Amino acid sequence: MRPKIVLFGDSITEESFMEGGWGAALAHHFSRSVDVVLRGYSGYNTRWALTVVERAMEGVCPAGAVPPAAATVFFGANDASLPDRRSGFQHVPIPEYQSNLRALCTYLKERWPSTVVMLITPPPIDEDGRLKDASGDNSGLPERTNESAGAYAKACISVAEELGLPVIDVWSKMQQVPNWEKSCLRDGLHFTSHGNSVLLDEVLKKLADEGLSLDTLPPDLPLFSSIDPSDPLKSF
Amino acid sequence: MRPKIVLFGDSITEESFMEGGWGAALAHHFSRSVDVVLRGYSGYNTRWALTVVERAMEGVCPAGAVPPAAATVFFGANDASLPDRRSGFQHVPIPEYQSNLRALCTYLKERWPSTVVMLITPPPIDEDGRLKDASGDNSGLPERTNESAGAYAKACISVAEELGLPVIDVWSKMQQVPNWEKSCLRDGLHFTSHGNSVLLDEVLKKLADEGLSLDTLPPDLPLFSSIDPSDPLKSF
């Protein structure tokens, strides 16, 4: 039976199966060995995620089935919206963000003790891109800033360390890319194809660190290359 | 609990989550309402598929879980390989292809009576593209022809009619596209982005005909657009 990898997060997870998306690329990478299960909820912060996590995970792994091999928890981009600007209703203060992340990870680990729960920090923000995306908002101020996103990224890493969980610091990693503002982000927040590939590489590395790779996860049936043309049926 | 759509087929299914792929696009289209489950097996014909179908479907829907809403059965491109050319060991004669398709569909319908089982014919073949792809084969003859693929497509449609199942005639549909040989097929057999979109459109139409669309399949939790900014938590 194939293992599962669950992607739990906000819009950057929800849209991860669009063209060039990191979720689809992960599913393609593991096309013969893993079922990638999408649980992305556009606009959600950790407060809302915590309210729905039980319903979101319903049916991912029915009673008696093998628990997921891994789950990514990728929230913070909405929590980090500034409280006094147009997305203020999505804002969650850092102490509550941390306590919500702790509760989300604890919920998943209690439900599925063997599952690798992996945190992903919010991505960096290109404020110029956010301003250009702000139709109807004439304040001239971005609703998210890179500085705020960075504080949430640090807070996320600290929860991961406290809980002993792997974490991907996509906020820092992405900012190492030349011209990351435009090459990785299409609207100052959501990923371009290149941004998606930066995250995908990190997810694959981190999964491999946890023993989950094409070397360790067998194909679910014989690969074409292993089938003997002179007697194909003996392979099955 | 989200419904599932299972994609069962050969390489054109296995690679359907690569960039621009029809499987990933289907998963994106239904990102909040359906789990798309990939069961693509590169190189497989219906004879091999029939040998493994029980193992392939293991874990898709554990006992007690809701059966899949739909399953695509997309084989024939390998069965239609000509028997006396380099891919001859993948060839399956038409009468056996039909009897295997019947058995595959019957297996799925017996396992999951409520599931919409949908057949997809093999795609057309661009023989020039196959010749250019034939490294190491100096025969000058393509291992698949469009005429043969067309005969398998007709045979597939006839099985669907006999069993009363929906069928997508991608062999005919794709040949309505100007310059289909190069615009839809990248190596004479596998799909370009445009070829993928041709199939995706047909799959979405056929699913809608069977009552499976964004209008009928609800999002699994409140959409961001339905959340009241003045009191977000009351939505959950």
TrEMBL record, chains A, B:
Keyword check for Hydrolase: yes
What Pfam families does the record point to? Lipase_GDSL (PF00657)
* One example GO MF annotation: hydrolase activity, acting on ester bonds
Gene3D superfamilies in the record, alphabetically? SGNH hydrolase
Top-level taxonomic group:
Eukaryota
The record's keywords, sorted A to Z, are: Hydrolase
Family statement: Belongs to the 'GDSL' lipolytic enzyme family.
Please identify the protein, giving its name as recorded.
Answer: SGNH hydrolase-type esterase domain-containing protein
